[in-house]
Amino acid sequence: MPQNGVQVAIATNQLLANLIPLQVLQPAVCWLLVSESMAKSIDVFGELVEKKCPDTQLVIREGLPDAGAEKILDFLLSEDEAIKQAHPEMAVDYNATGGTKLMAIIAYQVFSSDPANRVLYASTERNEIEVVEPQGEAPIAIELANDEETYLLAYGLIRRKADSDNPVWRETAQSRKTLTYYLAKNCQRYGNAFSLINGAASRCEKSGTKHQPVTKIWGEAKALLNRLNDESLLQWSAHEPSQIYFHDRAYLTYLSGGWLEEYVWITAQACGFDELSAGRDITTREETKKNIRNELDCVITHNNRLLVIECKSGQFGLNDQKDSDILNKLESLGRRAGGVMGSALLVSAQPLNRVNKGRNQTIYTAERAKLMGVAVLEEQHVSALQTWLETWRDTGHFPSN
């Protein structure tokens, strides 16, 4: 398509579905059809077009009916005529990626009726733009990769600082890589012991003290405490088993579950992703002034897809509300940040399903997460993380475990 062409698109919450074809083809005009329900997304889309396609004129055409086939058809026929009158010399591409199914079907009928027009569909799984009409044309390669900031902005999220932005954080994570991998490899062995140390470190952090009493130490907990003592992350001795001493408050985050976040970050580094961050603070556009922030444990962007990972080393099934909050946060942020081109993964050092002895019932957290569209990697499978990440990198999907 020549650079002076018009690209027609229907506004959608999945802004990248409309942005990527503009980035690839860089038309002179983007003719955006906007329904009432999509009006709020226009400001963000305008920012993205200005940033990524500075030579493209964005023409916003409001009034597309949200429902009613005849009303939609009348509107689109009118817009087709308006485009021909405004740009009679320009070729027209219709990007069929956005809008509802009804809108897309009717728009296809309208814009494909002119043999000079093309109908396009962006497929990020195959990293190409398919030419639906005219038939027989080769797909157009998507030879670009949007960065994390653009991806998050496309879904109304403002990127703030990340732990991995700090060179000291990165150097520290690398320096204890051997211990981190040891913990990840032994999740099944140390699961309950993780909870013991998590709790002691968390209480210590909240109280500002350097030691915490513990009431019960068993075999695997002793083995883990001895290993952490040898690594100088804490002080514990079988001669004084009821006390755990923490040398440095800087170690508390690591001991209360930060090691799992570091493991995910270190493992992801080996996969060659386009962009990777750990401990990423974000806020929604609506909450920017209030400075209300959420943290994403790990964010990966690759081939115009995004992956949000949540890391948990503590037990599930002990507090229903807490479990629900974790899953709802990951599902909500993962869906909002990733849209149809994103994925969410929960990495848990302990099994998600637990027997609640008080109620004599099993809490099926893993099944609930999967029903919410969140992939799960738990306990003994945590050491397979690199394989999972590489599969997602290459296919956009996770293997089944």
Reading side by side through the largest sheet, how are the strands ordered?
Answer: 3-2-1-4-5-6-7
List the total number of helices: 13
Class derived from helix and strand content = alpha/beta
Number of strands: 17
**What's the shape?**
elongated
SSE blueprint and pairings:
Elements: E1 6-10, H1 15-25, E2 29-35, H2 42-52, E3 57-64, H3 69-86, E4 92-95, H4 101-112, E5 118-123, E6 128-133, E7 140-141, H5 148-154, E8 157-162, H6 167-175, H7 177-185, H8 187-207, E9 211-213, H9 219-230, E10 243-245, H10 252-269, E11 275-284, E12 294-302, E13 305-312, H11 320-338, E14 342-348, E15 354-356, E16 361-363, H12 365-371, E17 374-378, H13 385-395
Helix pairs in contact: 1-2, 3-4, 7-10, 8-9, 8-10
